[in-house]
Design a protein that fits this description.
single chain; alpha/beta; 10 helices; six-stranded parallel sheet
Length: about 220
């Protein structure tokens, strides 16, 4: 997935793709429609994620091993400007990219993994209503152990999704995807943080005007 003219900048050894949201969506769609040669993964990193990676070599290697890593949030953008003197072309975060992708009428299949048993039911109901151009083929709560996920992986593979959305929070979701990657028969896997909790109604996003200013982190 690293073809083309897309520039990358490294932070703590993690290559960050610098592109516009439109381009990121095209990359996702291409990955899902291409001939399957193994699960591809996209991660989103913010300041908190990079702090975790700074202290954990293994986690940093997992992030660096993704097909694409996108930068999320004001703190991350400040870090990019300080370290490389560049302004990222867009804020390609999972909370915005995921609904934008599902908002495209692609007729593809997706699976949700994450949140609590109660919350994932509400998140699934929201997703079905919000994204009629896709088929939700299954969902499962996120309380699964990395080393004991055989049944969950089999359930996911049996549903034949084009897209797996994993919302377990950092670093668990990236570590889980990395550990199961060789066994997942899914063209594209993405770690989406707390998005499922937003969909379930357990979290509320900052107003759009505050997000545009880059101060979503002020909204608690």
């Amino acid at each position: 997935m690293r073809e083309g003219r897309i520039s990358e900048r490294s932070i703590f050894g993690v290559p960050i793709s610098d592109l516009e949201m439109r381009e990121a969506l095209e990359i996702c769609e291409k990955a899902m429609r291409s001939e399957f040669t193994g699960a591809r993964c996209i991660f989103f990193v913010n300041a908190h994620t990079l702090n975790l990676a700074w202290d954990d070599d293994a986690y940093r290697a997992v992030l660096a091993g993704a097909d694409r890593v996108f930068g999320d949030g004001t703190g991350f953008r400040w870090a990019m400007r300080f370290l490389h003197g560049v302004r990222l072309r867009d804020n390609v975060n999972g909370t915005d990219l995921t609904p934008a992708l599902l908002g495209r009428d692609l007729g593809l299949r997706y699976y949700l993994l994450g949140a609590s048993a109660e919350a994932i039911e509400r998140a699934a109901a929201h997703a079905r209503a919000a994204f009629p151009g896709w088929q939700l083929v299954g969902h499962h709560h996120g309380y699964v152990e990395i080393g004991n996920s055989d049944a969950v992986v089999e359930k996911i593979n049996a549903s034949r999704p084009h897209l797996l959305l994993v919302g377990m929070g950092n670093p668990k979701q990236e570590l889980w995807i990395h550990a199961q990657r060789e066994r997942l028969a899914v063209p594209l896997c993405m770690g989406i943080g707390g998005l499922l909790d937003y969909w379930a109604g357990d979290l509320e996003r900052a107003p759009a005007w505050l997000r545009r200013l880059g101060f979503e982190w002020l909204h608690l």
